[in-house]
Design brief:
Helix content: 40-55%
Structural class: alpha/beta
CATH class: Alpha Beta
Number of strands: 7
Strand content: 5-15%
Strand order of the largest sheet: 3-4-2-5-1-6-7
Number of domains: 1
Radius of gyration: 17 Å
Bound molecules: adenosine-5'-diphosphate, magnesium ion
Shape: globular
CATH superfamily: P-loop containing nucleotide triphosphate hydrolases
């Protein structure tokens, strides 16, 4: 039985999509069947993996119950990696879902029929704790929380953990935190070191050993529709995401 990971943080620009795309690519590269599910209307994961913005069917159609997950899953150019693409229509789901009773379980039900085919299913969440992220947290076994190594990084993390506890209690008892991931880490700055120390002190055990460095190649790769391990396999960012994949797999 595969494991479903939600990549979540209500803050934008912290590295959720970058982590979802690159972790998915790394586990696929290791030979695991993997599925990336883009549930952000901005569709950055879909674009970053080289799928156009105009997929005929998206996760929106799945959430609205008009098609099955199988109908939207598409191959990528990467072996062992499939994607359920997003589109701008997903923005509508944030309005429509709350009107439907029990809709927070929709993604979970939709994944039920396919999840056994994938060792890793990664859900790239939007930057909010709205209905789409709730759907992801109800569908997930584990949460990965990217945290940008900048000032204010810890702001909001306590709130996020409270939300996770609430969802665990009320909607998804299986849910656990896989780990918090420091991203865009610039080891030359004192600030990054301070943020790292503080987060490790605040949340002992919860922070991944692997730290993702700020790396130009990581930022460039999406504009070529590629994960960094295919854009520049030997850069520091590619190394770090490979390390993360190992750590995630080892944590189970
Ligand atoms: P989120 O999904 O949380 O909004 P993104 O993954 O889209 O965040 O990252 C925000 C921006 O930072 C993007 O432009 C991305 O390319 C860039 N970025 C993310 N991680 C790194 C990194 N390790 N090094 C350099 N740029 C990064
Ligand atoms: Mg994103």
């Amino acid at each position: 039985m595969g494991t479903v990971y939600a990549i979540a943080n209500q803050k934008g620009g912290v590295g959720k999509t970058t982590t979802a795309v690159n972790l998915a690519a790394c586990v696929a590269e290791a030979g695991y069947e993997s599925l990336l599910v883009d549930i952000d209307p901005q569709s950055n994961a879909t674009l970053g993996i080289g799928i156009g913005k105009d997929a005929p069917l998206t996760v929106y159609d799945v959430l609205m119950g008009t098609v099955s997950m199988d109908d939207v899953i598409t191959d990528t150019t990467i072996e062992h990696l499939s994607i359920a693409p997003a589109g701008p229509d997903l923005a509508g789901a944030t309005v429509e879902l709350p009107r439907i009773q029990g809709s927070e379980g929709r993604l979970r039900s939709a994944l039920e029929q396919v999840r056994d085919r994938y060792a890793f299913t990664l859900l790239d969440c939007p930057p909010s704790l709205g209905p789409l992220t709730v759907n992801a947290l109800v569908a997930a076994d584990r949460v990965i929380v990217p945290v940008q190594a900048e000032y204010f990084a810890l702001e909001g993390l306590a709130g996020l953990l409270d939300t996770l506890s609430l969802i665990q209690r009320e909607l998804n008892p299986r849910l656990t935190v896989a780990g918090m991931l420091l991203t865009m880490y610039d080891s030359r700055t004192r600030l990054a070191q301070d943020v790292e120390r503080e987060i490790r002190e605040h949340f002992p055990e919860l922070v991944f050993d692997t730290v993702i460095p700020r790396n130009v190649r990581v930022g460039e790769a999406p504009s070529f529709g590629k994960p960094v391990i295919h854009y520049d396999p030997h850069c520091a960012g590619a190394d770090a995401y490979f390390e993360l994949a190992k750590e995630v797999a080892a944590r189970g």
